[in-house]
Amino acid sequence: MKDWNDWNWQLANRITTLEQLEKYTDLTKEERVSIKEASFRFTWAITPYFAGLIDRTDRHCPIRMQVVPTAEELFDDAGVADPLDEEKHAPVELVIRVYPDRVAFCIGNRCPTYCRHCLRKETMVGKPDREFSDDKVAAGIRYIREHAEIRDVLLTGGDPLMMPDDRLEDIIRRLHAIPSVEVIRIGSRAPCTLPQRITPELCKMLEKYHPIYLNTQFNHPREITPEAEQACARLASAGIPLGNQSVLLRGINDNLPTMKKLCQQLMRIRVRPYYIYQCQTLTGTRHLRTPIERGLKIMRGLQGYTSGLAVPKYVLDTPYGKIPIAPSYVVGREGNKMVLCTYNGNIWREENPPEEQNVSQPQEMPQPSASCACSSDRL
Ligand code: SF4
What we know:
Elements: H1 7-12, H2 18-21, H3 29-41, H4 48-51, H5 62-67, E1 95-96, E2 102-106, H6 134-146, E3 152-156, H7 165-176, E4 183-187, H8 190-193, H9 200-206, E5 212-216, H10 226-237, E6 242-248, H11 256-268, E7 272-278, H12 292-302, E8 313-318, E9 321-324, E10 330-334, E11 337-341, E12 347-351
Parallel strand pairs: 2-3, 3-4, 4-5, 5-6, 6-7, 7-8
Antiparallel strand pairs: 1-2, 8-9, 10-11, 11-12
Bound molecules: iron/sulfur cluster.
The site of iron/sulfur cluster has 9 residues, from loops.
């Protein structure tokens, strides 16, 4: 198709009706009803590119399960609309602040494709009534400028790359000009759901404002296509370090072979697996949430069985910050020895130097408390 590689064409031709969807996947009568019911409550749209990755005949296709609405979204007795209390952490409307030195700056609420597991699907993303005016963006930039302790700004929303280059550049330029802002990060799923958006022009613009980082979200190895690979190569070649934040999703990637392949394929396309998020207790996601024990089992199967760079951190995000969830390799103590277990079950006893041998004490140790976000890295 002539315009297939044009990101604006992809957006203009998104799948938003049953008739359009049926060009990509078979639907039963019940599924048609189910999609209609869910779409009254939650926004949906899928780029033709991402819809093209759906396996037409597989009801449990991992691509389809992430983006096609189902009536299961309407039956969730535990999920809440804003599990991270983000609205309470907003000193000005578009800025979310949980940590002293960094903020999330929500500069838009549109995405190329709407994920069924989206953290902000109830509060912001795809909500036509949320307004992101120039005045609100200016108020956010002013807040960041007036708080010199903020050294790291994550542009998010919604997907910041839904903006045209000139508008995005205007925001980045103003943030870059603030002396206390050392790092700008972009959270975008475009490399996965709309890789056509990663144009040479966009990369040329971004590389003027280093250090720019980009974190994306691939959830399944089938999303790593030649188009996604090219998008990531363009960003990496522009000097933008890439990280991946996948979400652990029932029936999609909550098993070791899938997650291991995903992490290894990400490394191949120059994207560092950064986080696996425990799926939040969020409205409409009961059917996608998976037990924490399963996540721990996956982490056990990654650590040591693939290179350390391909092992992400498994985290649970909370209103107080991220909590790393890690299997323990410390078995116990024997006298002055610490007993540890290797990835494949071998026991190792390591001489453990006593505290008083330390020549110097650390200057300052963070003291976690119930109200303090301690040292975890939420954004
Ligand atoms: S791309 Fe991110 S912000 Fe957009 S719908 Fe998906 S999870 Fe939500």
